[in-house]
Amino acid sequence: MDKPSFVDLLNEDLALEFKSIVQYTRHIATMTGPEYVSTVEELRSHLSQELEHALTLAEQIDFLGGSPVCSVPDVPDSRGDAQAALKLDLELEENQLERYRERVEQAHELGLADVAEVLRPLLTQTQDHVRELQSALGA
Q: Which of 31, 80, 87, 90 sits most deeply, having the most CB atoms within 10 A of its CB?
């Protein structure tokens, strides 16, 4: 892998973070019922972390000479079905978790230890998001 290909992958990660931001925003706004109050609060926390992840990725893309993307992949509509919404969130977080594992490894392989260290907190927080969503779903 070369640096331009790595930047392309980071841009794909950035687009997924944008998707997370939109998806969490939608789910926070539409998830109702007293049984979801604590879950919505947790999603609010995830939302702010996703924004930080997007900023971190955009900064690393720029640092590596790339241009951060500004596109958002389609966000599925799960309005009215909180369990379906949480499953979509879990699926997205699991996908991002795998991608961040790969990205940290790839950064090391490219000799970009500093970039790998900047990405590591994204990996850690995404692992936490997966666990919290699994818990919310009773998994």
A: 31
C-alpha–C-alpha distance, residues 32 and 71, integer Å:
29
* pLDDT tens, position by position, 62-81: 999 999 998 888 888 887 78
For residue range 27-47, what is the model confidence (pLDDT) as tens digits?
A: 999 888 888 899 999 999 999
Which of 92, 130, 106, 90 minimizes the C-alpha distance to 10? Answer: 106
Residue pair 127/100 in contact by the 8 Å Cβ criterion: no
- Joined together, the tokens standing for residue 15 give 């687009």
Tokens, residue 24: 């969490």
> Could you tell me the domains of the chain?
3-136 (1.20.1260.10)
Query: How much is the pTM?
Result: 0.93
